[in-house]
């Protein structure tokens, strides 16, 4: 599998390092706890869940973590070993490289393993010699630098391409450092990226040359993990983190990112956090979701803004973002004693790390969590109020961070659900309970259906029992758990806000601090389990699309399409974030597997393939290039066109009608005006059935006619000149039926498509409507047909002509003749409802207005509807209406807005007495209120059906 990674334009160009670790972490079972990606035998299975080697994988090299002491092997050599961490880099001998995963998976002494991968510098743009250090003023770091002298004993590690030890603005602050690529050699920068980062944070101040570093005078520890091309490997970067911690670094800068989660990297991150080290990382430069390691819960994730505090277009954003800092045209040190400007989230990282160093210098006892909190909650809102996915908590503010001391609880007041504070996903927060009655509310905006894993840890000197309650949408209790000390719980969620309530269950004698961490895991899609070709799920050819997820490491989603004819199919898969880099696998009927992987993190694009295919079963597989679970969705689409052969011929009469099944499309063409295509189907359950026709040529005026088993026409739908599709819905009892397809203009250059469905309703837009039953009853009786797009539009006002048409059908009023002169000046003989209006006028149902008009297209009022219905009951009685003595004053007695002289007083009273209309709670009828189509359907159904 190959992939193109965009390289820098020159050594003076700078941006984020993209750490493409690829491949998943493949773990064996540990104790009694099942780990991800374990085969049926309890060991990683090569056949079922193969690791897809990423493009940046180093051939034959693997990162391995042993359960105990590392052991030599006849299959590979150990290139490097971190004995303290039981982690090493191994290279398989050539003859065993293809079996590497199987060999490692079967070794009971190995805890987990993953392919070792390259990392690379990717430059955006660079303008040497332009700009100045305006970013210091923008963030008020210039004032902060004047306020606090950096602690000279503070060590800041830069894991990157090394640093230029000869640069006059840097050499006074540099420790010897380490070269992890060539042990014993100097970590000198032969690329330029590390030197640019070092200048922002560590350039010497007040030396009358160059620029002023934010932490001038502190010890800068260069750790070279990347070569002159900005290339390295994941193992070495993780080893660099551990090396920095062991050398006493208190801040580690990571201007690198990876769209894929890496267990080895997180192990290194947690080791650093456990040793009191703060990690600051770049969010990424893809204009997408926050990448790793910035996305880990305890890493300070940094995005970029321009000089106007607007989010940089390239800056990644998302639920894990913490803060932003300037990242465009940052003036800094370059190789060879030079200076210039550079752009990218990489350049925002040393500003945040520098601010962290100033805080540590002023408050040496602060923990990494306290430093993170202070930076977050001192930030300046430059977007939405509070935390948001574009800018996190906001733009760092140097002075505010130094003048505001750390607070144990930044979230107050949040003692009610309405005051819940928004927190970011996949991050750790600190808060406290000030008393036994204090309650803390937080809210997370869940991006997808799935589950959270919440981890709670009390950090106070006393033990306090706490209760955590989780509410969906703020009101529906999902889960509740009580803890003393610490604990972890999984909470299922939908795509809706999740509210978290924290309260004490035991006495609190002094403010009780705690830490709450959350991890989000996306849902497994409805097609699981379908991880093998044998378990591929059948999908509907007519549907054309589906949404899926990669919800666990090694997940491969397989689908099966049944192609009824030879033809052409186009398949595409696209993800909603670059963290999911989909790979498309297609096995056509009788053919070999095709693998499509055109996109990459640097050039995201849909994976697409078009194939000429034979009839039969086609398999589609979708997987993540990096092999890991991803909190993202992918959209799989397919478009199928059969060969232009009408395979159902001959079917020119009911005798030769071809069978059609629910949900299975049939295709054909109309070869001449005498060509009628007949199809036959049987149903065993009464209900609404819809036929959808598509791909008719414009101008063909195709039509479908529905017949019952006795060949009596019961439905018809014809397209106009400009239409290419149609839909028709009918209520059908059990039995046999026929479709006849014809057209006013023949065509053989394309195939029409016809699909029959069983549906819940006659109309597409009344699924959960309160008038669902009434509308469907009238549709079943054939009294209403809705609009051409099969919508009913229930909340739309009904016109006078529309209601009169329905009423005439209900009371069996025959239409009048168009030859009769119109009694209304605004109703011409060509009007669509003219026969109905003439007949209704002749029968006394309507009388029109004083100006001689009928206003057929005017919306109907409640009074007008009542009058028409009451008069219709005299033609077709219902509910004993013909035996009723009507009280003509009933409406006047009941409703204060119906005066005695009101024109429809008697008709409204009649319907009230029949108990088919009602007024409103405040004693009014609202006779002039417009009537909706749903209200009309409900009234008619209530009276006559």
* The CATH homology group name of the largest domain: Peptidase S8/S53 domain
What average pLDDT do the residues reach?
86
How many helix segments? Answer: 16
The second-level CATH architecture of the largest domain is 3-Layer(aba) Sandwich
CATH domain fold name of the largest domain? Rossmann fold
Largest sheet: 8 strands, mixed
Query: What level of helicity do the residues show?
Result: 10-25%
Q: How would the global form be characterised?
A: elongated
Structure description:
With 945 residues, this protein is an alpha+beta fold. It folds into five domains: 1-406, Peptidase S8/S53 domain (Rossmann fold), CATH 3.40.50; 417-522, Jelly Rolls (Sandwich), CATH 2.60.120; 537-642, Jelly Rolls; 654-759, Jelly Rolls, CATH 2.60.120; 779-944, no CATH class. The chain is built from 16 helices and 44 strands. The strands form nine sheets. Strands 1, 2, 3, 4, 5, 6, 10 and 12 form an eight-stranded mixed β-sheet that branches. A seven-stranded parallel β-sheet has the order 8-9-7-11-13-14-15, with helices on both faces. Strand 4 (76-82) and strand 5 (87-92) form a beta hairpin. Helix 11 packs parallel to helix 13. 48% of the residues are buried.
């Amino acid at each position: 599998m190959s992939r193109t990674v965009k390289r820098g334009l020159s050594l003076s160009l700078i941006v984020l390092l993209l750490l493409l670790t690829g491949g998943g972490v493949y773990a064996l079972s540990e104790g009694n706890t099942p780990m991800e990606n374990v085969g049926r035998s309890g060991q990683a299975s090569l056949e079922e869940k193969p690791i897809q080697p990423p493009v940046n994988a180093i051939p034959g090299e693997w990162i391995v973590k042993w359960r105990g002491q590392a052991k030599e092997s006849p299959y590979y050599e150990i290139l490097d070993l971190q004995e303290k961490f039981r982690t090493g880099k191994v290279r398989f001998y050539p003859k065993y490289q293809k079996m590497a995963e199987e060999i490692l998976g079967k070794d009971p002494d190995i805890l987990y393993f993953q392919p070792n991968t390259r990392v690379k510098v990717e430059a955006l743009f660079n303008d040497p010699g332009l700009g100045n250090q305006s970013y210091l003023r923008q963030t008020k770091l210039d004032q902060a630098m004047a306020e606090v002298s950096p602690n000279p004993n503070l060590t800041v590690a830069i894991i990157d391409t090394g640093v230029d030890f000869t640069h006059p603005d840097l050499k006074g602050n540099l420790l010897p450092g380490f070269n992890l690529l060539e042990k014993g050699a100097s970590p000198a920068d032969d690329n330029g990226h590390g030197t640019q980062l070092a200048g922002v944070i560590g350039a010497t101040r007040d030396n009358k040359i160059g620029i002023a570093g934010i932490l001038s005078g502190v010890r800068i520890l260069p750790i070279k993990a990347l070569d002159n091309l900005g290339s390295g490997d994941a193992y070495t970067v993780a080893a660099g983190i551990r090396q920095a911690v062991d050398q006493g670094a208190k801040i580690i800068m990571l201007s690198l990112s990876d769209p894929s989660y890496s267990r080895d990297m997180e192990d290194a991150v947690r080791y650093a956090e456990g040793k009191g080290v703060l990690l600051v990382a770049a969010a990424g430069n893809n204009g997408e979701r926050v990448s790793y390691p910035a996305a880990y819960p305890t890493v300070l994730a940094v995005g970029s803004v321009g000089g106007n505090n607007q989010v940089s277009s390239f800056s990644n954003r998302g639920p894990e973002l913490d803060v932003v800092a300037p990242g465009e045209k940052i003036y800094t040190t370059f190789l060879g004693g030079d200076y210039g400007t550079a752009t990218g989230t990489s350049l925002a990282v040393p500003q945040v790390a520098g601010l962290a160093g100033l805080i540590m210098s002023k408050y040496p006892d602060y923990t990494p969590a306290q430093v993170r909190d202070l930076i977050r909650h001192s930030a300046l809102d430059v977007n939405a109020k509070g935390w948001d996915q574009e800018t996190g908590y906001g733009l760092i503010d140097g002075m505010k961070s130094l003048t505001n001391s750390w607070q144990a609880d930044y979230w107050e007041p949040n003692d009610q659900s309405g005051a819940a504070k928004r927190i970011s996903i996949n991050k750790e927060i600190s808060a406290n309970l000030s008393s036994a009655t204090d309650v803390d509310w937080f809210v997370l905006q869940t991006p997808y259906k799935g589950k959270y894993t919440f981890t709670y840890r009390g950090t106070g000197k006393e033990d306090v029992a706490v209760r955590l309650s989780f509410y969906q949408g703020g009101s529906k209790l999902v889960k509740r758990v009580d803890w003393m000390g610490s604990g972890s719980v999984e909470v299922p969620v939908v795509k809706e806000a999740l509210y978290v309530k924290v309260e004490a269950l035991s006495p609190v004698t002094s403010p009780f601090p705690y830490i709450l961490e959350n991890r989000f895991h996306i849902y497994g899609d409805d097609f699981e389990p379908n991880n093998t070709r044998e378990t591929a799920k059948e999908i509907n050819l007519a549907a054309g699309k589906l949404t899926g997820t990669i919800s666990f490491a090694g997940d491969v989603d397989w689908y099966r399409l049944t192609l009824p004819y030879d033809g052409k199919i186009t398949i595409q898969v696209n993800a909603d974030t670059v963290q999911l880099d989909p790979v498309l696998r297609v096995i056509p009927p009788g053919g070999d597997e095709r693998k499509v992987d055109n996109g990459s993190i640097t050039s995201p694009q849909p994976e697409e393939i078009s194939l000429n295919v034979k009839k039969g079963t086609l398999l589609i597989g979708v997987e993540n290039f990096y092999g890991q679970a991803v909190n993202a969705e992918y959209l799989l689409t397919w478009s199928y066109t059969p060969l232009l052969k009408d395979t159902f011929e001959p079917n020119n009469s009911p005798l030769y009608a071809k069978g059609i099944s629910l949900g299975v499309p049939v295709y054909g063409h109309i070869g001449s005006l005498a060509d009628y295509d007949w199809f036959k189907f049987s149903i065993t359950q009464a209900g609404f059935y819809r036929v959808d026709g598509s791909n008719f040529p414009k101008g063909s005026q195709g039509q479908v006619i529905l017949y019952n088993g006795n060949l009596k026409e019961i439905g018809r739908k014809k397209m106009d000149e400009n239409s290419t599709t149609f839909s028709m819905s009918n209520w059908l009892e059990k039995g046999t039926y026929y479709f006849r397809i014809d057209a006013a203009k023949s065509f053989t250059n394309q195939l029409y498509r016809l699909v029959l469905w069983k549906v819940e309703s006659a109309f597409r837009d009344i699924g959960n409507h309160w008038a669902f039953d009434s509308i469907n009853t009238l549709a079943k009786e054939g009294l209403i047909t809705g609009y051409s797009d099969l919508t009913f539009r229930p909340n739309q006002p009904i016109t006078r002509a529309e209601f009169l048409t329905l009423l005439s059908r209900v009371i069996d009023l025959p239409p009048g003749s168009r030859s009769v002169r119109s009694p209304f000046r605004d109703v011409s003989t060509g009007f669509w409802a003219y026969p109905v209006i003439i007949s209704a006028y002749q029968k006394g149902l309507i009388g029109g207005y004083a100006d001689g008009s009928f206003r057929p297209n005017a919306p109907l009022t409640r009074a007008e509807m009542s009058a028409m219905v009451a008069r219709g009951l005299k033609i077709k009685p219902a509910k004993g209406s013909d035996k009723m003595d009507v009280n003509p004053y009933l409406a006047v007695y009941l409703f204060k807005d119906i005066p005695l002289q009101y024109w429809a007083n008697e008709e409204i009273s009649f319907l009230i007495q029949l108990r088919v209309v009602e007024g409103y709670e405040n004693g009014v009828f609202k006779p002039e209120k417009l009537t909706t189509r749903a209200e009309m359907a409900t009234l008619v159904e209530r009276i006559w059906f």
